[in-house]
Structure formats: structure tokens, C-alpha cells
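does this look right to u?? G3I version
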Amino acid sequence: MTNKDVGEYRGRTLRRLRRPRVLLAATGAVAAAALAFVMVPNANAAASTLGAAAAQSGRYFGTAIAAGRLNDGTYTTVAGREFNMVTAENEMKPDATEPQRGQFNFNGGDQIYTWATQRGMKVRGHTLAWHSQQPAWFQSLSGSSLRQAMIDHINGVMAHYKGKLPYWDVVNEAFAENGTRRASNLQSTGNDWIEVAFKTARNADPSAKLCYNDYNIENWSYAKTQGVYSMVKDFKSRGVPIDCVGLQTHFTGGSSLPSNFQTTLSSFAALGVDVALTEADVTNASTSQYSGLTTACMNVPRCVGITVWGVRDSDSWRSSESPLLFDGSGNKKAAYTSVLNALNAAPPTSPTPTTASPTVSPTTSPTTSPSTSPSSSPPPTGGTGVILGSQSGRCIDVPNSSHNNGTRVQLYDCHGQTNQTWTYTASKQLTVYGNMCLDAAGSANGAAVQIYSCNGQANQQWNLNSNGTITGVQSGRCLDVWSTSNGAQVQLYSCSGQANQQFRLTAR
Ligand code: G3I
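got this back:
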């Protein structure tokens, strides 16, 4: 992206709107709890870090991380404290991951992945198909061999990170400023290259949410925004798998926050995709622009999070514009406070309306509930049924009806067969097949949730809470899933109030 590209933005003040926030728990006919509209109480009204403040509304706050800076103590201290999502700035791009054809190198990407996940952070994948930062061998190809190389690259990289990354930027920056496709070697392989990339990615890792990512698509009335919007609308209408749109939000190089940014976010979201601000930075870190872009995201339920493109000004690709939230010494800037305040001002939940599973739910139509009302449902005390994820509308499922100890459970379309039928016992076990238990294979963030022969230990005991979460008695952590897709694995994670931790035992 060039300064000229970025300079085509138009800047105005962001209009702030508030909407009622709804979390629809769509369920079957039995438990009263399962029919409730659940609002998760805001436990921390004024969180003191960006990640914690964003988590209060079910969102993340991330940063780009460069592997080469992970030995800088100030950098890692600030990043480790403030953020709960990480994007590899360059290390997961094609030139880094497949420097020679068929020879993959994940050293830098893995370094960042390990650093982040050891600190309980998640990692966004960036990026698989892009006109820039291609390895030399890739640039020497054309036509069908280039198309095949793109497919092989997506398969190779996604296989390595399969099940580990909640989001992938599958295609990056494929549009020109006038709203038509950007001329590139990938575009020369045929106009269908983008949908081929997304279909390949879906097959390679069904658990990852698949994003289209671009810059200069923040202004709703801009031609490029409309070009991308038309593509996403077309993909959704034809069933091409796309789950999210990343708006890079580079308000640098002469560009600034457009007044209609929230309209853009909500318009994309209305197509049925998540939206995210993926590479935010702002010339001289304008406090009004930073708070405005943050509030725009907070006002759109499907805006799942914000990532800034670097930690300190000195780490930025545009360091001369001092565009980030921390100065070169790692001190918080005024823009930091404006973002933190905007995050803390957001309503407490990020309610994604749920889609009920057809076999379990006679279900309801969406309704709003007051943004301050917590669930008043009593915790279930027993019973047999499916465990329904509110966000996904999918059920906790034992893959292939396995009876093997250690089989990890997953989300899957609800069908209510024995491998999705759980009984909550008086001793707090969740049993399946009569003699096997839902079992935590550890108590740390990310610990696998599996089936195991019932043994009466605390890692097989669960609390079904009135706020719609299920917590492990031993760990105190919540059942959690980082995707709504079939096959998404269930894990333990610190309870965050997010919709992906809402599960209910729904009797059949
Ligand atoms: O690592 C080499 C170093 O060994 C060498 O000495 C030096 C000489 O120029 O280059 C270094 O690599 C640079 C790399 O960043 C790491 O610092 C590349 O030249 C430089 O081109 C590369 O720039 C990256 C840029 O993408 C490339 O397009 C930026 O760091 C990175 O922030 C930027 O990120 C992009 C997003 O992926 C997509 N959206 C726009 C965004 C900003 O341009």
C-alpha cells in the first residue's frame, strides 16, 4: 500500500450511534433457562488494559507483532500486558512461509504463535493470497501453474496451523481504488481466483473464520468499499465460504476517519459476516479519530475486535507519523486513554444473534432485551439433552461417535443422537453413552475438553451457571470455542463473558 493509496481517504468526525444489544439464546422446548435472552453482566466496568476492556463486550484488542522484536523487553512487556490478539506483521505471509516451492518455513510464524498463546492470546492468520510479498518462485509463474501454486500454498500453510487460528486473512488487498479488481498476477489467472482461494481455505481448515482484508474500504461512499461490498454480497448469495471482512483502518498517509465508518461496518455485517479493524493506525495518533474508530466498532455487534498495526511508534511501518498508542519508550499516549475509555464505555456484551439448530429448536424470533438485564434463569440442576452453543447454534458432539478415552469434543450441527446426548448428574458430571464423562485434560487456558471414562475426579465435574456458561469445577474456566463452524474444538478458557462461552444443556 502506498501513501498515494492511503491518501484517497476522506476524513470527518464519526457520528456515534448506540443500539440495543441482543443476545438471543435460541433453544428447544424444555428448560426455562434455555428460553431466556441472556445478557452477561459487566463484571469490570472500567478495565485497565485494552484487551480486558475489549473482552467486556466480547471483543478482542490486538496488535501486529514482529518476531524480530520479541527479544526487546519493553516491547514484550507492553504487548503482553495490553493485548489479547496478535497478528504476525510479516511472518505468515507467502514470502516468509514458502520461500521455495513446496518448502515451507514456519519459524517466524511459530515463534509469534508460541509467544502469544503462552500468554493466553489468540493469533489472526495474515495472509495467504496477496499481490505483494510473494516469493520469487511464485512471481515467475503464471496461468494454471500459478493458480495451482496458490492453492498448494493455502493448503500447506493452513494445514500447519489447522485448528489453531480463529481467523485467517485468506485474500489481501485484491481491489483497486476504483472498485474493480486490482491488476496482479493472481488476477491474471482468472476472475474466480478469490473464490477458489476461499473454497480451498474452507476445506483446509473448517474451524477458521475466513476473511477478506483490505485498506481504503472504510468510507461507505468510496468506490473501492462498494466494490468489495458487492463481492462479499455475491459470495454470500452463491454460497462461497466467507466469514469476515477486515478493514485495515490505516488512517495514515493523509487519510483520516470517515464520518460514515460505522455505516460501512454495519452494512458489511448485514451481509452475514463478522467485521474487524485489522491494522489500525492514525497519523499523530489523533485522539478523536482513535476514539471514533473504536466507538464505531463498539456500536456494531458483529465488529469482533480491533488490531493496531504495531506496539510503539518506533515499531510502526509509518514510524515518522507516530501513529500508535505507545511512544517509543513504551509509555501510554493520550490516544491510548481515548481508546481505553471508548472500550470501557461499550455495552457489556457483543451479542451475535444465534441461529437455532433445526432439530433441537422450535425456536423464536429475535427480540431485544434491556442492555443491563442479566439472565434470571435458574441454573439447571439435572437432566438429559444436548449442549447447545448459543453463538453457533451447534451442539457439543463426540466426533464419529467415538468411545475412545481422550477424544476431543467439537461443535457440530445438532441431531441429538447418542454422541450429542449428555446427562448432568447429581455429582456434577456430564455423561455420554452412560459411562463416559466430559473431562478436562488440564486446567490451563486452551486445555482440551474430551471424553474419558468417568472416575469421579474434579476435572470431570462441571457447574452449569445461570449466566449461561459451563465452568470446570477444577479449573474454574469456561467451556469455550473459537469458531462457530462444524468441527470447532471445545476447550477451557478464562471466562470472558463472550458469546462463544455460552452453552446450555437443553433437554429433548
Ligand atoms: O527483514 C528485512 C531486513 O532484513 C532488510 O534489511 C530490510 C531492508 O529493506 O528489509 C526487511 O524487510 C522489511 C520487512 O517489512 C520487515 O521489516 C521489508 O523490506 C518491508 O517491505 C516490510 O514491510 C512490511 C510491509 O507490510 C510489506 O508490504 C511491513 O513491515 C508491514 O508492516 C506491512 O504490513 C502491511 C500489511 O501486511 C497489509 N496491509 C498494509 C500493511 C502496511 O503496509
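The pocket of G3I is lined by residues 1, 89-90, 132-133, 172, 215, 248, 279, 317 (CB under 6 Å). idk if thats expected tbh
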